Request: fold
Amino acid sequence: MGPGMQLRDPVEKKARRHPIITLDGPAGSGKSTTAREVARRLGFRHLDSGALYRALTFALLSAGIPEGEWPGLSAEILDRFSIRLRPVEGRFQVLLGDRVLEEELRSPEVTAGVSPLSALPAVRAWLLEAQRRAGEEGGLVADGRDMGTVVFPHAEVKVFLIADLRERARRRFLERENRNPSPEELVVEAGRIQERDARDSGRQLAPLKKADGALEVDTSDLSFEAQVSIIVNFVRNLDWGRHLP
Ligand code: CDP
Reply:
């Protein structure tokens, strides 16, 4: 059994009262910030699926389980880490036991370990149902790598965000260091992102790729407001989107 869940039909439910919107894309394309704001404007809840993968990485590192042993992790071992999602205003918190995880999820150690961990089939299977349960009621904006392809293949709206590598590296550096990178720093940051992208797109299971029929938005030259508006306007122009509050 996966984190914080009961046994249920693992297949994504088709009959939902409210729609699901998925946002997938590579690191630094602006998925999480965009998803959060799109959800806020539409009155939906935001699920940052990457936070679940990061939480498990954090838990394993904190427990001192070395990366070399991760391929041997079974569902039974993973169950010992009490990781769960808790719905709060507009989003889900990720808990490890009673501890709410926030900044610790974005440490360099977690960022370096999360991609190899998320390529493991046992890990993906273990986290799948928690994500689907988060979508059971609908009214969800979910961001990640495989939201539109694997987790919510019946989502009403699928978005694929892209941006060129330099811009993604600049944003990530700025976000972390609160300043723009020097040309040398930009090269280092871009290298890290490129390596993670290659792993995420190259893995066998649930690789990062654009879902069929997804709306592709290149955010390289878009302001935050513009990229949010493109998605919100797209949704509001759909039959059901017109009736949203
Ligand atoms: O925010 P950023 O795009 O850097 O990453 P994230 O969304 O926090 O995801 C961190 C890592 O978790 C990714 O690089 C993937 O390896 C993995 N991940 C995944 O495999 N599938 C998802 N649905 C979400 C994240």
In short: The first strand starts at residue 20 and ends at 24. The domain at 19-232 is CATH 3.40.50.300 (Rossmann fold).
